[in-house]
Amino acid sequence: MSENTISMIITRQKDQESAPYEERFEIPYRTNMNVISALMEIRRNPENAQGEDTTAVAWDASCLEEVCGACSMVINGKPRQSCTALIDQLEQPIRLEPMNTFPVVRDLTVDRSRMFDSLKRVKAWVPIDGTHDLGSGPRMPEAKREWAYELSKCMTCGVCLQACPNVNSKSEFIGPAALSQVRLFNAHPTGEMHKAERLQTLMDGEGGLASCGNSQNCVEACPKEIPLTTSIAALNRETTLQSFKNFFGTDHTA
Asked: Model's pTM, two decimal places?
């Protein structure tokens, strides 16, 4: 390998039933390359480091601007976005692996349905009935809007779930992304109508708030620097209050 060559070791997998294996690639270096552009170079010329013809590596990507969250993968042992992972800032050989928290579809492509199902479970949206013009929506106080905006930056990339030791095949934990979205939509003047229902979901059954081990890996890994542990702490307080409301029968918002 020369200074004009990029060395990459990629964990590959043909399909969900196949065993993973590693394949090494050496590609020409260009200035300002990111991991995605390196993968595109392999796609243009699918040949491994031994000079053998191989298949192009499968991966997900869309915006290439760290907005969509689709290009998440493990790069040199750290889950992150491959569009903002610059080759010049990575130690070689660069190791690319799929996020093993999720089922592997092929190579670096994973099925993130677990995360999206968790968002459905906690009703992470603002429900609005009807198709007619409802006029101006309710206004939020500026102080609340500022921290709610930080939570709204979540791009459902799945990096926080990959970093969390409590999210695995043996756990039903919904993960920090969905928890933070509960706090976000409970803060919305309209979304607050379903606050009690969302909190009850976190309190009932497996995989709720009690499954969080407070490792704080999620907030360290989040590419958008979302205060996930702050949201989890706030939800711990809110679920405690909700349990008192349930006990005394004082909650009439659900």
From this structure: 0.90
